[in-house]
Amino acid sequence: MKKIRVGIIGFGFMGTTHYQIYHGNPQAKVVAMADVDPRKRQGDIRAVIGNIGGGDNSQPLDLSGIKTYADGMELIADPNVDLVDVCVPVFLHKQYALAALAAGKHVLCEKPLARTSADAAEIAAAARQAKGSFMVGMCIRFWPEYQHTYAVIQSGQAGKVRSATFKRLSPDIDGNGWQNWFMNSQLSGGAIFDLHLHDVDFIRYLLGMPRRVTAFGVKGVRSDKNGIDHVMARYDYGDGSLVTAEGGWDAGKGTPFEMSFQIVCEHLTFRLSETGYKIIHADGRVETPQLAPDAGPTGWHAEIAYLLECLAAGTRPNRYMTPAEDVVDAIRLVEAETKSIDTNATIQL
Fold it and tell me: With a threshold of 0.85, does the pTM exceed it?
């Protein structure tokens, strides 16, 4: 079996997470990595911190046999790289994604794809014309519980969605990342953009674009004065349903990470919480689906396995699972939420 040769640009939390997943997948071989930090280029990842999951970063990674670069553009030019995995801070996504596409590489670009919807649309347009395949790392679409809920609702057996509540709550990540870029709202977009976008995209994926959005937020709790560190939003579909999402990283550093949802439909209620994933029937019967995907325990494993399978088979990733255009819409929604917070008004879409 010919392995997909992977180059990773950016060796922070997501870059090292992706590295470990590729390392355990027989269809991939990491042949190159790029990072501005010379310690990371030597495998020292002690400075890498994440807000969910994560393993032991105290031991150095064995990067023997892997070409290391200080400049991501040099990695893109490496003829031995088939797939470029872009894991740099979001404000740098556009330059590396466009360069890799222009070089004819396959590209996996971490979310949120780009810092603005205009830049994201430019990447999506380039991806449609590119020789290589392109995929956005919207891992929640691949997370087992979210994927199962989506499939059951789309099948029609749950009936109409009556209400839906999503939460994504993180501990304070001040001090994480290269030059603490998350706390600079011009670079990261704040929690509303970097964190909350996951649920915004899933709502868009499940229900389509709403007619209007109303949002409330708090600024400057952890990041700079313009950074929205906590948001609560309501999405109006004009059909009597109540759809909301809450996200933030303003809690103290010891606070457990939470990603949860409750979706109430005509016939079924779906609930993901600290007690696990359950489906409740109208008669009170409770199902606890046992989800054990072959690809691995997380959406990161599943999205990477899916992309590698597509590349090995010579097929392009299905647009419904790898949605550059959909992510543009999700970023537009977050921008509308930001405007709603700033103007204290409901925004028409």
Answer: yes
